[in-house]
Amino acid sequence: MSEDERSRRGGDGLTDGGAPSDHVELAADGGVETDDVDDVVLDPWGAASVSDYRKLFEEFGIEEFDDVLADVPNPHYLMRRGVIFGQREYRPVMDALREGEEAAVLSGFMPTGDPHIGHKLVFDEIIWHQEQGADAFGLIADLEAHAARDLSWDEIDEHARDYLLSLLALGFDPDEGELYRQSTNRAVQDLAFELGIEANFSELGSIYGFDGETDVSHMQSVVTQMADILYPQLDGPKPTVIPVGPDQDPHVRLARDLASRMRYFGVTEAYASFEADDAELVVLSQAYDAREEYAEDPDQPRCTEAAEWLRNEGGDRLDASETEGALERAADSLENAGMEPLRPRTRIVNRRGDDEAFEALIDAVDGEKRVFEEHIDAFDLNLETAEELAREVEVDQGGYGFLAPSSIYHRFMTGLTGGKMSSSIPASHISLLDDPEDGYDKVKAATTGGRETAELQRELGGEADECPVYELYAYLLAGDDDEFATRVYEECVGGERLCGGCKEQAAELMKEFLAEHQEKRAEVEELLDAADIELESPRRG
User: What pLDDT is recorded for position 33?
Assistant: First the structure.
């Protein structure tokens, strides 16, 4: 067996250089190339693997990061290479950073073991946003670790320090950001209590699969994480991004829902005094746009006229006619409204505000308006202006005014032995605390996407998209040098780069990175000791 063939097979005895079903192929452009169509299950405490990233767009509403990449100021290399592949409403954060306005970034770490190179992705994302001007928050999810993973407080303290040292060593500025533990942050715990009023067991069961055997503390830790996500907005609403892996998306979706439920006022479109759901609003909008066809006075179409039109010729050609029942419901409401004018307006609904807050809102709405018991119809405000006004009134009246948090999602790193990277499988990952020589050896023993022989590699090229070692270059070792990362990829798939030499180069780069990182960790020890974070928990258990 040649040296390059031994290198291709790796130290774990794998012989095909391929990947199991949960492997994610990393294309040169960062795209997703897998044909795997297994169901995707997002479990924040389960196996961290996704077989088909496209299904995250289809099933969970995550949007492609490429949709906003061109407008991101000074994008991080993880963004440029497609490692950060998805986002939820990232544009407000991006716009705020570009305009020099307030924004925030927060992510947390459950200290269940040593920080490894997979965690570095999140460290880098927090630090990059801080460098772009965002308020940065890094938290230790110690309540979650204790409740969901049954770690002792001594274990948590030990691992927490290691996570924080690596975050500081990579460039987090504690003077310009905030580090905290869930268990010692009273503001987070108070907010969690308030958020818990808006959540219930059935909802948590539906999202997370909790049942009668689930510990109450585990459920409580979820609400605490919701408070973490919204914590950067306690001093005022601002666009906030949560960098996470896709397995954490259930947390993000719940936090977005709770942010909305905590709002005093909701803002929506309306066309008459009655309520309408989203599908009915589509019908009403199209009926209003067609008023020239049926209204005696098109400047003041009547609801009864619109209802008659919908029940006859109009209903046969509306785009919303495919929405089951929406057209009929809208026509019924219009008919009941009688001679009331069909007229666009912005509606501000009082959800949680007290009488004083609602009165303040009424006073704040200028121009023509109609005031009802639980809402205001404003005829001279567009949706965006009304939302800003409602939020300002809410904050003035003691409310939170939360903006829905944004999120960005990075792909999981493949384990060095193939399959998923796991903290419980030492050979599959490289700890940021590994001895540099051990890091070198792990890379040298890694599985690759090489061919069976050097001759076939030269003839057919390597399969970089199925190679954990190439991922090391793309995610870490190439740093900000896109040209280097591209050259490694093209030399591999072109047959010029053989696995033995490629792994040797990667192993040397990894050894250098670990040595430099650990030297930097030693340098920031005093910085951590001076930071405003409790490193030893007073708790027992």
Answer: 37
Query: Does residue 331 share a domain with residue 204?
Result: no
Whether residue 537 is contained in a domain is answered as no
Same domain, 77 and 175: yes
Q: Are 129 and 136 in contact (CB under 8 A)?
A: yes
Alpha helices in 108-261, H assignment, sequence order? 117-131, 142-149, 153-169, 186-197, 201-208, 216-230, 249-261
Structure tokens at 311: 């029940």
pTM for this model (two decimals): 0.86
Query: What rounded mean pLDDT belongs to the chain?
Result: 87
Would you say 318 and 309 are in contact if contact means Cβ atoms under 8 Å apart?
no
Residue 498 lies in a domain: yes
Tell me the β-bridge partners of 64: 86
Number of domains in the chain: 3
C-alpha–C-alpha distance, residues 421 and 387, integer Å: 43
Same domain, 388 and 445: no
CA–CA separation, 65 vs 74, rounded Å? Answer: 15
- Cα–Cα distance measured from residue 8 to residue 11, given in angstroms and rounded to the nearest whole number: 9
- CATH number for position 217: 3.40.50.620
Count of CA atoms in the C-beta half-sphere (13 A) of 432: 29
Q: What is the pLDDT of residues 184-208, one digit of tens each?
A: 999 999 999 999 999 999 998 888 8
180: its two tokens: 């905290």
pLDDT tens readout for residues 95-122: 999 999 999 999 999 998 899 998 999 9
Q: What is the 3-state secondary structure (H, E, C) of 448-490?
A: CCCCCCHHHHHHHCCCHHHCHHHHHHHHHHCCCCHHHHHHHHH
**Cα angle, residue 418 at apex, residues 407 and 475 outer, rounded to 5°:** 40
Residue 307 · residue 336 · CB < 8 Å: no
Q: Look up the domain containing 226 and give its range.
A: 68-262+404-410
In terms of domains, do 255 and 270 share one?
Answer: no
What's the angle, vertex CA 477, arms to CA 473 and CA 481, rounded to 5? Answer: 85
Of residues 28 and 367, the one with the higher pLDDT is: 367
* Same domain, residue pair 253 and 272: no
For helices 142-149 and 216-230, the axis angle rounded to 10 degrees is 160
Task: Indicate the pLDDT class of residue 55, thresholds 50, 70 and 90.
Answer: low
Which two three-digit tokens encode residue 417? 């032995």
Burial class (CB in 10 A: 0-12, 13-18, 19+), 72: buried
pLDDT, tens only, 132-144:
999 999 999 999 9
Residue 55, in any domain of the structure:
no
Same-domain check for residues 95 and 224 = yes
Instruction: Enter the DSSP assignment of 422.
Output: -
